[in-house]
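Input record (one chain):
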Amino acid sequence: MSKPAFAILGSRAVLAVGGEDRVAFLQGLVSTDVASVGAAKAIHTAFLTAQGKYLHDFFIAALGDGFVLDCEAARAEDLKKRLSIYRLRSKVTIDMRPDLAVAAVFGAGGAQSLSLASEAGAAGPLDGGVAFVDPRLADAGARAILPADSAAATLDAAGLTARPPSDYDRLRLALGLPDGSRDLVPEKSILLENGFDELNGVDWDKGCFLGQELTARTHYRGLVKKRLMPVEIDGPLPAAGTPVMLDGKDAGEMRSGEGSLGLALLRLEAVERAEAEDLALTVGEARLAPKKPGWASF
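The corresponding structure, as predicted from the sequence alone:
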């Protein structure tokens, strides 16, 4: 899509974290540097188990005197509950914000329409809310957290065209960007198999965070044997979780998809063999053609 557009993401919700200890509270829990968040910068981050397995990922932006977290709507209450476990005596508030909506802004010139700088994570105020370039990858466009009753009007006034969320989903899939628990399995997935390192989702210099030990060990010992990759699908769209096969052997697992595009967690050895021997990766009745994202270093 070339013209700038927006889609209201009903699959997303907003959680507000306030209080004077909010930075220190989140800093010890999540994988990126919360201290860097401010009026001009937003981040994408992950919240892990103590064993380094995925629980949640979300965007953090500054709004007013606190933070707003752009997270999965279906799992927002779980995120709130899990964060609250660690609150203890910290001076922190954690509240759902149903009055706020999340929108994706995409297409050429989308970030500029919101008066944002071009680099990933660049943020700025927007009509009682906040907008920011996707901190993972500037090519993914921007996001906006706005009052729900006026979000569409605000983005329309910025010269953006309303589109269905599926249009944004196709862009996300083509770029190889995971979408929460649609692509990562809570309490099982690890960040580095899903590109979080290259997508600004892990800060190796920020200090300790929950689950850091396993994440760092995986990184420094080069233990990543699978990667989430965009795939072109020739055949019916497979359900998430369907095994991917190569020559009758397990080669990975299907994740989210839309039409002929999808993401699959694939064994790198199997992808290399398929290319070298001109073999087909199959999933159900479909054939998959993996595409390495331009941002990926594997």
